[in-house]
Design a protein that fits this description.
15% helix; 1 helix; lipopolysaccharide transport protein A fold
Length: 188
């Protein structure tokens, strides 16, 4: 056997071995790491309206991306905008809540918002109300929200900061603990 035949057989064996390694790695790369599952569906640039048990709008969400976990049936959302309506007889306005990330429970009865959370509404007199925090848990069917971290509440003429937020979104009643309040004159 001459050296050219030997070199050709060696190169052929190397090519076959490389092809086999690449082929076997393809299956490993396609499967998720242990403990992680692929979403059963993904929505891009969407708007979704969730209804409560009575068939009324519980909330609307708009976002660039949503992924649903097939095991827990929860949803992870990128930069969501949640619109939470108040009842017509409450006198309060609809709440628009934005954040960097959102998580929705299987039944849609709990929403966890994290990162630069801003909630905007209007009070019974039509004045704007804004809440800012880093995390907010919203319970749309109960029309309430909570936060255990620092919250800043702003209305015309008032800036209030505190912790341990309890908010009744339907009646626009907000309770904060350990508050600091600053009043400012309103120019008319």
């Amino acid at each position: 056997m001459n050296w050219r035949t030997l070199a050709t057989l060696t190169l052929l064996a190397g090519a076959l071995l490389t092809g086999w390694v690449l082929w076997s790695q393809r299956d490993r790369d396609a499967t998720p790491a242990s403990g992680q599952t692929q979403p059963d569906y993904i929505l891009n640039d969407f708007e979704m309206i969730a209804l409560d048990k009575q068939g009324q709008e519980a909330f609307t969400v708009r976002a660039p991306r949503l992924e649903r976990d097939p095991d827990s049936k929860t949803m992870d959302i990128e930069t969501p905008l949640f619109i939470i309506p108040s009842s017509p007889d409450s006198g309060g306005g609809t709440w628009e809540v934005r954040s960097q990330t959102g998580w929705v429970s299987e039944r849609g009865d709990e929403i966890r918002l994290r990162g630069q959370v801003q909630a905007d509404s209007g009070d019974a007199d039509g004045r704007p109300v804004t809440m800012r925090t880093e995390q907010l848990d919203v319970f749309p069917q109960a029309k309430r929200a909570t936060s255990a971290v620092k919250v800043t509440l702003t209305q015309p003429g008032l800036i209030m900061t505190g912790h341990t937020l309890e908010a009744d979104l339907e009646r626009n009643r907000i309770t904060l603990q350990d508050t600091r309040t600053r009043y400012e004159s309103i120019r008319r």
